Each structure stands twice: as C-alpha cells, then as structure tokens.
Amino acid sequence: MEFLELVNTRYSVRHYKSDSVPEKDLMSCLEAARLAPSASNSQPWEFIVIKTPKLRKRIAESTFSSLVSFNKFALQAPLIVVVLMKKGHMLAQIGTSLQGTPYSLIDIGIATEHFCLQAAERGLGTCILGWFDEKKVRKLLEVPRSKKIALLITVGYPADSPKPKKRKEMKAMVKVL
After folding, report:
1. Closest CA to 155 of 47, 69, 70, 68
2. Cys-Cys link to 42, which of 84, 88, 117, 160 (CB 3.0-4.6 A)?
C-alpha cells in the first residue's frame, strides 16, 4: 500500500467486530511503535496490552460516564492498549525546559501513530483516546506515579467503513516562501 493510501485508509474506528486480533498483527503494531523516532532517542513509552475481558471492560468503563458518553464504543474493542509515558533522557528533558516544548508528548504521539498506521495496514481499526479516568486506570493496572498514562488505543476489526475525510484545503494550512 502506498503511504498516502495508508494514511487515507486509517480512521478513528468507533464500531468494532468481536473477532480477536491475531497475535502476529498485534506484535507487528507494537514493533512499528517501538521503531518510532524520539527526541535524543529517549523512547519515553511503554505499552500495556489489555486482552483479559474483565479487565478490558473495566478499562473501557474508565473512558466514559453518565455525563460524557462519547467513548462508550471502547466496550466493543477486542483489545485496548495503554500507552505510558516515562521521563525522557536528560538531554530531552533539558530541551523541554529550554524550549518549552514537551518532547515526550510529541514522541508518544509519533509512536502511537506508528502503531495505528501499522494496524490499518493489517486491516485493523484503532481509535486513540485521551479522555479517560487516569486515576482509575492507574489503580487497575498498578502503574507507578513515575509514569503517566498518556493515551489508550482501542484495537480491532472495524464493523463500519470510513467516511470521506474532511480536511482543510492545502492553501489554508501551508505557506511557501
């Protein structure tokens, strides 16, 4: 698949089939994330793969409430991947302080998108979730305070088809000098 075709194929899936995700496909996605570039090669990420139905349900329930229900679809996903952020190397931390740019967050985003693009290439769907009860997830997974739970990724086979993407015109976002 050509890269732009892959990028166009990948979308945020909110309806999943119940089919399980093959281990080789999951490992391929994790390998793509592992190979992502990072500031000063700090690789400030760890991934926790949630397969166990009971735990997966409890993690999914942390993504919505009676007031905020837009992530309720997470209950359908056969897998949830928890993305942890560790402190970057000293050089990356110094750069963050001097430049005011949170390089570790950028790095987590790159690794997460590598995971999602590889999933799309394998015919899997994903959705990156930033809205969840971090305290609840931290307690369920016994994540130490030295690590931040940055994102959750739902993973599975899409039960729907992508809609055409609505994006700004190129001229509205690019300036060539």
Report:
1. 47
2. 88
As a whole number, the mean pLDDT across the chain is 93
Q: Which residue has the tokens 């949830």?
A: 80
**Lowest mean pLDDT segment, chosen from 17-26, 64-73, 83-92, 116-125:** 83-92
Q: What is the C-alpha to C-alpha distance for residues 86 and 148, in angstroms, rounded to an integer?
A: 7
67 pLDDT above the threshold of 90: no
**Cβ-based neighbours of 141, under 8 Å, separated by 6 or more:** 48, 59, 82, 149
Angle of CA points 176, 98, 47, to nearest 5°: 85
126 phi-psi bin (left φ>0, alpha ψ -120 to 50, beta other): beta
**Residue pair 71/64 in contact by the 8 Å Cβ criterion:** yes
CA 107 to CA 161: how far, in whole Å? 29
